[in-house]
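can u pls check wat happens w/ adenosine-5'-diphosphate
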Amino acid sequence: MKVMKFGGTSVGSPERMKEVASLVTKSGEPTFIVLSAMSGTTNSLVEISDYLYKKNQEGANEVINTLEQKYYAHVDELYTTDEYKQKTNKLIEDEFNYLRSFTKDLFTSFEEKSIVAQGEVLSTNMVVNYLLEKGIKAKLLSALDFMRTDKNAEPDLHSIKEKLSVIMKENGAYQIYITQGFICKNAYGEVDNLQRGGSDYTASLIGAALEAEEIQIWTDIDGMHNNDPRIVDNTEAVRQLNFEEASELAYFGAKILHPTCIQPAKYADIPVRLKNTMEPEAEGTIINNVLIPKKIKAISAKDNITTIKVKSSRMLGSTSFLRKVFEIFESYQTSIDMISTSEVGVSMTIEDSSHLEDIVDELKMYGMVTIDKEMCIVCVVGDLDWHNVGFETIATNALKNIPVRMISYGGSNFNISFLIKSENKKEALQSLSAALFK
Ligand code: ADP
Ligand code: ASP
Ligand code: MG
């Protein structure tokens, strides 16, 4: 079985939904499809939830009404029969009345995660109804029945596998199985999600749970490009990536993939194929365990990085200094991306700065603390094993006019990272592309 995931733009209009239906039924083989919400919907749902939080009933109702009208218009375009138009309109009415119910009494607690989950519920119901109208044997499975996270808010693959295998046994004979990306239930049985962009993660987890032959991520571009196409001109699609290379790129800012979505596929050794819904014939990118020796694949960048430097002569010769420092980050559930050490100091970068003040307060017990905000990590990814002599000189030379705050190399064989100011990001990405892919 193949798993095919379609992102927001790929289901962003009735035409796109029709195209999805044609792509998933082409092979005639049983296929499991994962859908995002129509593009823009999750943002609107977040906006509704913000209005509710601020007790702004009028604001929430305005966004709800505008979004609802958009959905009714889609129904008219998508279906041909009155039966399916009525059926889907009823579903939309129920969904939006559910959202409206939160605005009636502003003092009841509302569940933000449940509101944000409705985008995927809407898109999957619309597509399954379209497939059924066309006479295709399709089955909608609710992701809330099997997608689970554990007490650390990490996906619980064991539980997902167990639950999904029961569901698949009970629903044996369908051509298309369809479910919501992004949404799940947490260890306490509450509606939750896998963070923004999380539908990729859903697809990878389902692929691993079903031991699928391939996981396909269908989006609006022809695969992973060798640099961020939103910033650098004339980027090119990379035809093949190793799982490790793809993980590094996703983690360090290549938006085409959710940061952690490669892990389940990698552990289950299932190839991931990135494809373009707008151009289905384009080759795309295949991600597997093949490693092309000495090949530099791509460059990516991660913004909103804060650097924290702790300088202390107590570090000299100490065997517990770093442990104590790291324990402070651990106690605030804040993960460190880059580290650079000397005998008398350590510099670390974090993305989540929500506990910055507390972390800094505690770090002050160990030395002098300096903070740099609005930084950016730029990564060069490929086979950078130390036998690949000379590439770091090319990369460093490409950044010769840009102040570099930290460099990290050797943590993995696939990545060299440079920490720079965000204001220099564009120039850094452009000159690295020119130096490495000319
Ligand atoms: P979807 O809604 O299908 O999940 P996303 O918007 O999350 O799509 O991801 C696709 C977008 O990722 C592309 O339109 C592109 O602008 C952006 N992107 C950023 N870096 C890269 C890269 N290195 N290669 C390809 N796309 C990238
Ligand atoms: N709809 C969610 C979002 O916009 C999840 C996804 O598209 O992957 O973030
Ligand atoms: Mg995405």
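The chain has 14 helices and 16 strands.
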